[in-house]
Amino acid sequence: MPELPEVETIKLGLSKLLPGLVITNVQHDWPKSFPNAPADVERFMVGAKVLGVRRRAKVLIIDLNTKYSLLVHLKMTGQLVFVGQERFGAGHPSADLIASLPAKATRVIIDFAGASKLFFNDQRKFGWMRLMPTIEIPEIDFFKKVGPEPLEAGFKPADFIDRLQRRKNSSIKAALLDQTVIAGVGNIYADESLWAAKIHPAGPVSTVSNAKLIKLYQSLREILNLSIKKGGSTDRNYVDSQGKKGSYLSFAKVFRRQGQPCPRCGTPIEKIRVAGRGTHFCPHCQKLPRSPK
DNA sequence: CACTTGACCTGTCCGC
DNA sequence: TGCGGACAGGTCAAGT
Questions:
Q1: Is the CB of A124 under 7 A from strand B?
Q2: Tens digit of pLDDT for each residue in A154-174?
Q3: Does residue A2 carry a catalytic annotation?
Q4: Where are the alpha helices (DSSP H) in A155-201?
Q5: pLDDT band for position A88 (50/70/90)?
Q6: Closest nucleotide (CA of A7 to C1')?
Q7: How far apart (Å, rounded) are the C-alpha atoms in residues A69 and A264?
Q8: β A117-122/A106-112 pair status
Q9: Which residues pair with A278 in a beta bridge?
Q10: Which of A96, A111, A172, A284 is the most exposed place for a label (fewest CB within 10 A)?
């Protein structure tokens, strides 16, 4: 569920909190959440200072001054919550969450000098943290295959269309979700951008006109940018680095809105299954291209 | 090679 | 009330 805007929001938050902090201890209870050997954690992480925080696709990269970096993928239910020395009073949006830490789903706790902590919580245990040499990051399979960042200035409509059309027989939604086509798009922003561009999610890529693909390119970028501005989407588990929820979902036009009227035409939004995912769309605005006889 | 489906997990919700 | 099953969705492995 954390997609590009959610991971970007966390990155922006952690970038203000972590750099300069020194790690004093690391606790982890589930090997799949953090598979590194204890000796490597001790050697390259404990005592290390945080240099900065980056994002590529949906992966966070926390660079340390040991020439090692901590990669974090939140998958569906991961949270990365920083708790400093301040005490939040009742009524603070994060007070209850922070008071509950460490929680049942806390997988990793990183302690910093000065008594602040970073909690990695992950109810479903799909997410992971991994310590590795900074210089080797571009060599891991995922980063070798992953597509361009959709919000980067150099990412042009022609590139978007070329890459989508490598999967011409897939549904347009499956192609958008394919991280090797384009980085960072997940279920929420696929549905929202297809609605904005008036494209049926199940239509094969080859049946979608270039004009509509250009519209999709524009809609996707606008929606990702808007969501970052709103602090991301909080569906079930997502919170930012300070435990706060995002507000984008209240701006969503179709996601989780089946049965509600389409904001453009009033037709009830439908929910179907496309590319193995729950898919929300307007059956009036987003028509399948007529199949040729 | 292109494409789809199942596995990884746990908590929640729905029907009986 | 309890219980079984469907569902949530990012990514990789396995299958067609």
A1: yes
A2: 999 999 999 999 898 999 999
A3: yes
A4: 157-165, 172-177, 187-196
A5: low
A6: C10
A7: 46
A8: antiparallel
A9: A273
A10: A96
Q: Average pLDDT in the A130-148 region?
A: 92
The active-site residue out of A11, A58, A173, A253 is A58
Q: How far is CA A155 from CA A60, A159, A221, in A?
A: 21, 7, 10
Distances (CA, A) of A219 to A25, A27, A107, A213, A215: 44, 42, 37, 10, 6
b or e along A74-108 (b: 16 or more beta carbons within 10 Å of the residue's beta carbon)?
bebbbbbbbbeeeebeeebebeebbeeeeeebbbb
Angstrom CA distances, A283 to A61, A173, A175, A209, stand at 40, 15, 20, 18
- In angstroms, rounded to a whole number, what is the distance separating the alpha carbons of residues A249 and A240? 14
Q: How many CB atoms lie within 10 A of CB A233?
A: 27
Please count the other Cβ atoms lying within 10 Å of the Cβ belonging to residue A236. 8
Write out pLDDT tens, residues A209-246: 999 999 999 999 999 999 999 888 877 678 888 888 88
Question: pLDDT exceeding 70 applies to what percent of chain A?
Answer: 96
The pLDDT of residue A30 is: 86
For residues A48 and A269, give the distance between their C-alpha atoms in angstroms, rounded to a whole number. 51
Name the active-site residue from A54, A75, A271, A277: A277
A125 Cβ contacts chain C strand, under 7 Å: no
Distance, CA of A5 to CA of A290 (rounded, Å):
34
